[in-house]
Amino acid sequence: MIDRVAPFVVTLEEHYWDRDLVAHFPGREGKRLSEVERRLLDMTELRLQEMDAAGIDMQVLSHGAPGTQKLEAEAAVRLARQTNDRLGEFIAANPRRFSAFAVLPTPDPKAAADELERTVRQFGFKGAMVHGLTNGHFIDEERFWPVFERAVACDVPIYLHPSFPHPAVIEAYYRDYAAQFPELVGPALGFTVEAMTQGIRMVLSGVFDKYPALKVILGHLGEGIPFLLGRIDETLSRPGNRGCSFRAAFCEHFYLTTSGNFSTNALVCSMMELGADRIMFSIDWPFASNMAGADWLKNAPISPEDKAKIFGGNARRLLRL
Q1: 44: which DSSP letter?
Q2: Buried (b) or exposed (e) across 295-317, using 16+ Cβ within 10 A?
Q3: Which residues contact 35 (CB under 8 A, 6 or more apart)?
Q4: Is 33 left (phi over 0), alpha (psi -120 to 50) or beta?
Q5: Region of 128 on the Ramachandran plot (φ > 0 left; ψ -120 to 50 alpha; else beta)
Q6: Where are the domains of the chain?
Q7: How far is the C-alpha of 19 from the C-alpha of 163, rounded, in Å?
Q8: Tens digits of per-residue pLDDT, 102-154?
Q9: Using an 8 Å Cβ cutoff, are 123 and 91 in contact?
Q10: How far apart, in Å, do the first and last CA atoms of the chain sit?
Q11: How far apart are CA 320 and CA 313, in angstroms?
Q12: What is the pTM of this model?
């Protein structure tokens, strides 16, 4: 057990799988489960053991990628509701250790907005997670704005999680190295570029002007945006660009988590750009180790006050845990 640095330790990019939804994922037919996939299906025994060993009090659960973002609308709506119902029942039986983000059927944006409100009102879910592109469409497109309108009405954040890049991007940017370095298309680069692009497009779309109370979460310490924030802000303010204070909008509306990015340099950069109040502890379980993440943040060279905020205080405030 780690030494306690906060009264309540929360992680909020912690994944699981629903068997029925996963059966609809492309390419799953006849595939044997890997060790990570077996962990995704574990909801209690191993999950709780590893939480306890690392001193984690609560996981905010979210379904793994690609959620329902690659399904046809009718199937997405049906499976999202079924998956959220099951998760809601699980949370109700384990309220001390688990909370949740909903899976949304974004192929039908109106139904996605309704499902977000239903899960918040009925189950007390803390927002929703969206995985990458919805059948090739970026989440900033106005067709999806009903989801953001409803998030504001419910006072919950939307978590933008990576998924695989558009097939055309994979072919043009990653094909030469994908066979030898399959993670390049995923967390090594492809996921980050895709999620970073989604975050930047959100700022440029004007959705925060329309919904000034909208809150968005990015994992992996901001998908690289904090490192580039000064350059993005300066270059978009040059003549020929529509007026935009990118830094101000990003710092006002986005929150970051440490999921899968246990880098002290990246943490300090993120704190310098957004402040410690905008950063929340996360692991990205089971893709990353609870103990590795907890030990890293415990030993990070930041103040005890900031450490307590990141370990749990900020998540408790944002999600009203």
Answers
A1: S
A2: ebbeebebeeebbbbbbbbbbbe
A3: none
A4: beta
A5: beta
A6: 10-319
A7: 19
A8: 999 999 999 999 999 999 999 999 999 999 999 999 999 999 999 999 999 99
A9: yes
A10: 23
A11: 10
A12: 0.94
Give the CATH fold of the 10-319 domain.
TIM Barrel (3.20.20)
Q: Report the distance separating Cα 228 and Cα 236, nearest Å.
A: 12
Closest CA to 22 of 139, 110, 131: 131
8 Å CB contact between 303 and 277: no
What strand order describes the sheet that includes 10-16?
10-16, 58-63, 98-100
Residue 151: burial class (beta carbons within 10 Å; 0-12, 13-18, 19+): buried
The Cα 220–Cα 164 span in angstroms is 15
Under 8 Å between Cβ of 92 and 66? no
DSSP string, 25-40: STT-TTPPPPHHHHHH
- Give the amino acid at 34: S
Nearest in space to 166 (alpha carbons), one of 145, 122, 136? 136
Strands 254-257 and 216-218: parallel
CB 36 within 8 A of CB 22: no
pLDDT reported for residue 29: 64
- For residue 25, which phi and psi values (nearest 5 degrees)? -70, 140
| Residues 51, 97 contacting (CB under 8 angstroms) | yes
Per-residue pLDDT, 87 = 98
Q: pLDDT band at residue 2, thresholds of 50, 70 and 90?
A: very low
**Integer-rounded Cα radius of gyration of the chain:** 19
Catalytic residues: 284
Question: Minimal CA–CA distance to 7: which of 313, 318, 321?
Answer: 313
Burial (CB count within 10 angstroms: exposed 0-12, middle 13-18, buried 19+), residue 76: buried
Residue 39 C-alpha from the chain's centroid: 19
